[in-house]
């Protein structure tokens, strides 16, 4: 057997050793690939679009979640605007008593204002940011108390980056005389603003912890993470315009979410990120109609206990178990039927 590009004819024994080395490398590569495929197959494969990338503005690896706008989020309806009908009884032509045949005088019943308020479609423009984050970590910091004294506490924090990629969605009117929009168009702006809120949810106890603003923690975290870009808390970042960019190496805008007094026995939990998109769901209309915002749910687990928490490593994703009962138990904690590192939810 002659290997391409290698002439071993003048050196006895060299050709055999090279062939054995190449075969060993191929076998090792096959075994590694098989192991990776087996792990993916055991959990149903990768079911999300997240990726890993290096960033020069905050040394280390960040997990990138791409924007996920949905055309179905650009409209609601048909809805009955009952609050409008109740507030303006004068639009009820039936209540005038001047219609002996039970029909409007001129227009068909469907063209009356009262009937049109029962078939209203609300349309809106939808945007969504790209979200990247570094591993969730812990640090001990001195936190000011209401009485002005300092108290040492364990702070959970997540350093994140947002970038605006454009590609917002909105309904497009082909014919203004037709009430039905048959097309969705893509629009982009020079920049957008972010108004984030991070809610850490313990799946074992059901408790939720909203991020807290800790001005004294930002500088310490920036030094620890070696971040050279400006780092903002979740209030300061709302004053910063996030520019539109298509550059994969663009710095984006960096922020940090912080939590204190989190349950030390935390094992299976998620971080719900609100504000990345303006998409929402509402059942009906009016003050009593349930209103749910679209949030990015990031799943985590922390193998460890309440002792020496700062040494525990928080892992991204849902843990995998070979035992089906154990896997089903964990999936039930997260409210999933299969392993997902993240998902978009309405809450």
Amount of helix: 10-25%
Main β-sheet, in a few words? 7 strands, mixed
- C-alpha Rg (nearest Å): 28 Å
* Distance N to C terminus: 64 Å
What characteristic shape results from the CA principal axes? elongated
Q: What's the rounded overall pLDDT mean?
A: 81
| Series of secondary-structure elements, N-terminal to C-terminal | HEEEHHEEEEEEEEEHEEEEEEEHE
Strand content: 25-35%
- Which structural class best describes the helix and strand composition? alpha+beta
**What is the total domain count?**
3
Overall strand count: 20
Low-confidence parts lasting 5 or more residues at pLDDT below 50? 1-15, 21-45
Q: How many DSSP H or I helices?
A: 5
What would the keywords be for this entry?
single chain, 347 residues, alpha+beta, 3 domains, seven-stranded mixed β-sheet, seven-stranded antiparallel β-sheet, 18% helix, disordered N terminus
Could you please describe the fold and organization of this structure?
It is a single chain. The chain has helices at 14-42, 82-87, 113-116, 215-225, 324-334, and strands at residues 51-54, 61-65, 75-79, 120-123, 130-133, 137-144, 150-163, 168-172, 183-187, 191-193, 197-202, 208-210, 231-232, 241-243, 253-260, 268-274, 280-282, 291-301, 315-316, 342-346. With 347 residues, the protein is of the alpha+beta class. It has three domains: 1-42; 47-74 and 126-346; 81-118, no CATH class.
